[in-house]
Amino acid sequence: MAGDMKVLNALDSAKTQWYHFTAIIIAGMGFFTDAYDLFCISLVTKLLGRIYYHVDGSSKPGSLPPNVSAAVNGVAFCGTLAGQLFFGWLGDKMGRKKVYGMTLMLMCLCSIASGLSFSREPKTVMATLCFFRFWLGFGIGGDYPLSATIMSEYSNKKTRGAFIAAVFAMQGFGILGGGIFAIIISAVFQACFKAPAYQVDPLGSTVPQADYVWRIILMAGSLPALLSYYWRMKMPETARYTALVAKNVKQATADMVKVMQVNIGTEQKEPVVKSGKEFVPGYWFTVFLIDRIGRFTIQVIGFTMMTVFMFALAIPYHHWTLPGHHIGFVVLYSLTFFFANFGPNATTFVVPAEIFPARLRSTCHGISAACGKLGAMVGAFGFLYLAQPQDKSKADAGYPAGIGVRNSLIVLGVVNLLGLFFTFLVPESKGKSLEEMSRENENSEEGTEVENHSSDNRTVPV
């Protein structure tokens, strides 16, 4: 064990260097792709409804039936949940690097296949689209535990949280990139293929070429994944997996010496970069603060503010529906999401990559991520039904009566409050090595020297 700890301690104390940023970009491009692929479908569902579910004589353009809309939007999330569990487990059995390549290729192939969904019959197109979207989600699911695990195992303990959070934050750029690309493609097709308004010509308002728009948007998700595949395959297996799981300390040392300047019994011969935090965009508050104030504090702040703002929206809900008050509603709603992303959305990605032992790290992160994805599915689709008016005659077509928006917001506020209470069971990993958190260093001499390093000594038994 002492031999294992030599290379691992060197990684923990290594200065921030270019390879850390290379790993962030490589793993981050995967998350960019994940977010693009998962959320771009919501940008094309209205178009799918107009193309495949047009009703002659209707005063409104066609739209997807509720069950079809739920399937098209939700099937990728089902695949993601399954992929998080499967690839998380496989990452601990076969190694992070091998499985990392599998997930990326699956994402690339299924992104392209989704855009090639065949037939002009609505049922056939939606069925094939859902089939490929499920397997796309399956590949995306594997990216969650593997990206977090790889980044945590490469990082030093002083900036580990910021590096993992930076990878996770790339999903924001993926969502933004998807929206921008969809606007550009739509504008190009609108300029090239003029069409009358729906009120003027209901059938002619949707030109045949519109069928290419949604396909191009979906297939474009394969491009960032393909661009990063070569570099992902060039990454060596993480030293922690090689040393602690594969039991090959010599190989772990050789791999790290090739890509990083770490001090393993010898002097450093190459310069390292100073910090790099100044290059992080200012709105990545979590990246800036997570290694300063800790994961626990950020999650408490996040859930607390989410609870406050959600109740501020829910209790006086009628006030926000009155003319002139909509801006206030949007501001509070935006702040709720700001603290969600600043708090639990980021910390629940970071912490599972830090607190479990190497032999179970990818599996346990996959389980944690799958629980989060299950909650997202219940919240997203449950809210669609719950938020319907209590009067069935006022509900949207195809939906049963619900409990109303106000009561639904109250339910979400209570869920946030429960999240705050459960946060007090989460251990703090700020400033600790991965082995210290998982107690994998208890039998080493080095481990005894850092027993009381942090003021918060809560750890997770293995």
Automatic annotation (TrEMBL):
Main location: membrane
A single Gene Ontology CC term: membrane
Domain of life assignment: Eukaryota
Cell compartment(s), UniProt: Membrane
Record's keyword terms, sorted: Membrane, Transmembrane, Transmembrane helix
Catalytic activity of the protein: phosphate(in) + H(+)(in) = phosphate(out) + H(+)(out)
Keyword Transmembrane attached: yes
Stretches that traverse the bilayer: 21-48, 68-87, 99-118, 162-189, 212-231, 296-315, 327-351, 363-387, 407-427
Key word Transmembrane helix present: yes
Entries under Pfam families matching the protein: Sugar_tr (PF00083)
Domain Major facilitator superfamily (MFS) profile: start-end pairs: 23-462
Cross-referenced InterPro entries: MFS_dom, MFS_sugar_transport-like, MFS_trans_sf
Region (Disordered): 431-462
Membrane topology: Multi-pass membrane protein
Gene3D superfamilies named in the record: MFS general substrate transporter like domains
Composition bias, Basic and acidic residues: 431-442
Family: Belongs to the major facilitator superfamily. Phosphate:H(+) symporter (TC 2.A.1.9) family.
Name of this protein: Inorganic phosphate transporter
Organism for this UniProt entry: Solanum tuberosum
